[in-house]
Amino acid sequence: MKSYANLASRVVRILGHPNSGWSPADLDDDNALELEFRFEITSDGNKNFLLVYQSLDGRYAADSWHETEEEALACAEELFGIAPSEWVRPEPSL
Q: What is the pTM of this model?
């Protein structure tokens, strides 16, 4: 799948467990875990996009489907506070 943007490492606060569900945590939640995650926006194999995220330890992972790359970027900003300027774009292939 084509990669449109990635972020190699970002600390994320989460609640929950790897096999029974988890979600981003509020900044003031004392029960949250802080883990490093990798993020990527990829093609879904058609004309849409996936926001894919996985903890660097491999225990937590998820993705979300979006009609446009802009929607995927907005989702990452809303859920994880990732500004559009933080994403790294791959070099165009020749």
A: 0.90
- What pLDDT does 94 receive? 62
How many Å apart are CA 87 and CA 8, to the nearest integer? 9
Q: Judge whether 93 lies within some domain.
A: no
Per DSSP, helices labelled H in 1-87 are: 69-80
- Residue 41: how many CB atoms within 10 A of its CB? 23
**CA–CA distance, 74 with 70 (Å, rounded to integer):** 6
Query: For the chain, how many structural domains are there in total?
Result: 1
Whole-angstrom Cα distance, residue 81 to residue 26? 11
Cα-to-chain-centroid distance, residue 6: 9
How far apart (Å, rounded) are the C-alpha atoms in residues 88 and 8? 9
Q: Give dist(CA 57, CA 84) in Å, integer.
A: 25
* Nearest CA among 28, 29, 14 for reference residue 62: 14
